[in-house]
Amino acid sequence: MRAPIGNFESAAPAASVEHFTGPAAEAIRGWKGAVPRDQLLHVDTDPAKADTAVFIENYGEDLLGTSANCVVVAAKRGGERTLAACVVLSTTRVDVNGAVRRQLEARKASFAPMDTAVEETGMEYGGITPIGLPEGWPVLIDSAVTDLPWTLIGSGLRRGKLIVPGKALAELPGAVVLEGLGI
Protein backbone atom coordinates (compact mmCIF):
# COMPACT_ATOMS: atom_id res chain seq x y z
CA MET A 1 0.00 0.00 0.00
CA ARG A 2 1.23 3.50 -0.78
CA ALA A 3 1.27 6.07 2.03
CA PRO A 4 -1.15 9.01 1.52
CA ILE A 5 1.64 11.47 2.40
CA GLY A 6 5.42 11.30 2.22
CA ASN A 7 7.71 9.12 0.17
CA PHE A 8 7.82 5.82 2.04
CA GLU A 9 8.53 2.41 0.53
CA SER A 10 5.19 1.16 1.82
CA ALA A 11 2.50 1.68 4.41
CA ALA A 12 0.33 -0.86 6.17
CA PRO A 13 -2.55 -0.76 8.62
CA ALA A 14 -0.68 -0.40 11.92
CA ALA A 15 -2.75 -3.09 13.67
CA SER A 16 -1.37 -5.70 11.27
CA VAL A 17 2.34 -4.80 11.53
CA GLU A 18 3.98 -7.54 13.64
CA HIS A 19 7.12 -5.59 14.58
CA PHE A 20 5.04 -2.60 15.76
CA THR A 21 4.85 -3.09 19.54
CA GLY A 22 4.31 -1.11 22.72
CA PRO A 23 1.53 1.07 24.16
CA ALA A 24 0.64 2.73 20.84
CA ALA A 25 0.39 -0.64 19.08
CA GLU A 26 -1.86 -1.99 21.83
CA ALA A 27 -4.09 1.10 21.64
CA ILE A 28 -4.41 0.79 17.86
CA ARG A 29 -5.18 -2.92 18.02
CA GLY A 30 -7.98 -2.08 20.47
CA TRP A 31 -9.15 1.02 18.51
CA LYS A 32 -12.89 1.63 18.55
CA GLY A 33 -13.06 5.17 17.17
CA ALA A 34 -15.25 6.48 14.35
CA VAL A 35 -12.19 6.58 12.10
CA PRO A 36 -11.75 2.97 10.91
CA ARG A 37 -8.75 1.20 12.45
CA ASP A 38 -7.36 0.28 9.03
CA GLN A 39 -6.86 4.02 8.34
CA LEU A 40 -4.26 4.18 11.13
CA LEU A 41 -1.16 3.40 9.10
CA HIS A 42 2.41 2.44 10.00
CA VAL A 43 5.49 3.25 7.93
CA ASP A 44 9.01 2.03 8.59
CA THR A 45 11.64 4.73 8.99
CA ASP A 46 15.37 4.79 9.66
CA PRO A 47 16.17 6.16 13.15
CA ALA A 48 19.46 7.51 11.76
CA LYS A 49 17.37 9.84 9.57
CA ALA A 50 15.22 11.20 12.41
CA ASP A 51 16.62 14.75 12.41
CA THR A 52 13.90 16.94 10.85
CA ALA A 53 15.92 18.27 7.90
CA VAL A 54 17.31 14.82 7.04
CA PHE A 55 13.90 13.19 7.56
CA ILE A 56 12.19 15.64 5.18
CA GLU A 57 14.98 15.24 2.60
CA ASN A 58 14.59 11.44 2.66
CA TYR A 59 10.86 10.96 3.14
CA GLY A 60 9.26 13.93 1.36
CA GLU A 61 8.94 17.70 1.38
CA ASP A 62 5.16 17.41 1.88
CA LEU A 63 5.78 16.11 5.41
CA LEU A 64 6.94 19.51 6.60
CA GLY A 65 3.35 20.79 6.67
CA THR A 66 1.70 17.50 7.65
CA SER A 67 3.88 16.26 10.52
CA ALA A 68 2.98 16.74 14.16
CA ASN A 69 5.11 16.52 17.28
CA CYS A 70 3.95 15.14 20.61
CA VAL A 71 5.65 16.49 23.72
CA VAL A 72 5.06 15.70 27.38
CA VAL A 73 4.55 18.61 29.76
CA ALA A 74 4.46 18.74 33.53
CA ALA A 75 1.99 21.18 35.07
CA LYS A 76 2.03 22.14 38.75
CA ARG A 77 -0.61 23.62 40.97
CA GLY A 78 -0.82 23.50 44.74
CA GLY A 79 1.93 20.87 45.03
CA GLU A 80 0.16 18.55 42.56
CA ARG A 81 1.85 17.56 39.31
CA THR A 82 -0.10 16.69 36.17
CA LEU A 83 1.52 15.16 33.12
CA ALA A 84 -0.09 15.86 29.77
CA ALA A 85 0.70 15.39 26.10
CA CYS A 86 0.63 18.27 23.64
CA VAL A 87 0.37 17.73 19.88
CA VAL A 88 1.24 20.55 17.49
CA LEU A 89 2.37 20.86 13.89
CA SER A 90 6.11 20.27 13.58
CA THR A 91 6.46 23.78 12.14
CA THR A 92 5.25 25.30 15.42
CA ARG A 93 6.10 25.04 19.10
CA VAL A 94 3.84 24.36 22.07
CA ASP A 95 2.54 27.44 23.91
CA VAL A 96 3.46 25.98 27.30
CA ASN A 97 3.26 29.17 29.36
CA GLY A 98 0.00 30.32 27.76
CA ALA A 99 -2.43 27.80 26.28
CA VAL A 100 -1.15 24.76 28.21
CA ARG A 101 -0.99 26.48 31.58
CA ARG A 102 -4.49 27.94 31.15
CA GLN A 103 -6.05 24.66 29.93
CA LEU A 104 -4.53 22.66 32.80
CA GLU A 105 -5.27 25.44 35.30
CA ALA A 106 -1.67 25.28 36.44
CA ARG A 107 0.48 27.81 38.22
CA LYS A 108 3.51 26.57 36.30
CA ALA A 109 3.99 24.36 33.23
CA SER A 110 7.17 23.15 31.56
CA PHE A 111 8.43 20.38 29.34
CA ALA A 112 8.81 17.16 31.32
CA PRO A 113 12.37 15.85 31.64
CA MET A 114 13.26 13.22 29.03
CA ASP A 115 13.60 10.40 31.57
CA THR A 116 10.18 11.23 33.04
CA ALA A 117 8.54 11.34 29.59
CA VAL A 118 10.06 7.99 28.60
CA GLU A 119 9.33 6.24 31.90
CA GLU A 120 5.75 7.49 32.24
CA THR A 121 4.72 6.85 28.62
CA GLY A 122 6.56 3.56 28.09
CA MET A 123 7.69 4.96 24.72
CA GLU A 124 11.08 5.77 23.23
CA TYR A 125 12.37 9.33 23.28
CA GLY A 126 11.93 10.79 19.81
CA GLY A 127 8.96 8.53 19.11
CA ILE A 128 6.44 9.61 21.75
CA THR A 129 2.94 9.67 20.32
CA PRO A 130 -0.50 10.69 21.65
CA ILE A 131 -1.86 7.20 20.92
CA GLY A 132 -1.49 4.78 23.83
CA LEU A 133 -0.71 7.25 26.60
CA PRO A 134 -1.42 6.36 30.24
CA GLU A 135 -5.07 6.46 31.28
CA GLY A 136 -6.24 9.80 32.59
CA TRP A 137 -3.69 11.95 30.79
CA PRO A 138 -4.95 15.13 29.15
CA VAL A 139 -4.05 15.12 25.44
CA LEU A 140 -4.04 18.70 24.17
CA ILE A 141 -4.14 18.89 20.37
CA ASP A 142 -3.83 21.98 18.22
CA SER A 143 -6.84 22.30 15.90
CA ALA A 144 -4.47 22.72 12.93
CA VAL A 145 -3.46 19.07 13.44
CA THR A 146 -7.01 17.70 13.67
CA ASP A 147 -7.93 19.67 10.52
CA LEU A 148 -5.37 17.77 8.40
CA PRO A 149 -6.66 14.98 6.16
CA TRP A 150 -3.50 13.01 7.10
CA THR A 151 -0.76 13.68 9.64
CA LEU A 152 2.51 11.96 10.44
CA ILE A 153 3.13 11.30 14.15
CA GLY A 154 5.42 9.14 16.24
CA SER A 155 4.73 5.45 16.77
CA GLY A 156 6.11 5.16 20.29
CA LEU A 157 9.29 3.73 18.77
CA ARG A 158 12.12 5.54 16.99
CA ARG A 159 11.88 3.07 14.11
CA GLY A 160 8.60 3.80 12.40
CA LYS A 161 5.92 6.47 12.25
CA LEU A 162 2.14 6.54 12.11
CA ILE A 163 0.09 8.28 9.43
CA VAL A 164 -3.44 8.94 10.63
CA PRO A 165 -6.37 11.17 9.69
CA GLY A 166 -6.07 14.29 11.84
CA LYS A 167 -9.63 13.86 13.09
CA ALA A 168 -8.68 10.46 14.59
CA LEU A 169 -6.55 12.26 17.19
CA ALA A 170 -9.61 14.15 18.46
CA GLU A 171 -11.11 10.74 19.37
CA LEU A 172 -8.29 9.79 21.75
CA PRO A 173 -9.09 9.38 25.45
CA GLY A 174 -8.53 12.70 27.22
CA ALA A 175 -8.30 14.65 23.94
CA VAL A 176 -8.99 18.38 24.02
CA VAL A 177 -8.71 20.25 20.71
CA LEU A 178 -7.47 23.83 21.16
CA GLU A 179 -6.98 26.78 18.84
CA GLY A 180 -3.53 28.32 19.23
CA LEU A 181 -1.81 25.51 21.14
CA GLY A 182 0.97 25.68 18.55
CA ILE A 183 2.60 29.07 18.06
Automatic annotation (TrEMBL):
Q: Which SUPFAM superfamilies match?
A: YbaK/ProRS associated domain
UniProt cross-references to Pfam families, sorted A to Z? tRNA_edit
State a single Gene Ontology molecular function.
aminoacyl-tRNA deacylase activity
Which InterPro entries does this entry report, sorted A to Z?
Answer: YbaK/aa-tRNA-synt-asso_dom_sf (IPR036754), YbaK/aa-tRNA-synth-assoc-dom (IPR007214)
YbaK/aminoacyl-tRNA synthetase-associated domain location is 66-170
UniProt protein name = YbaK/aminoacyl-tRNA synthetase-associated domain-containing protein
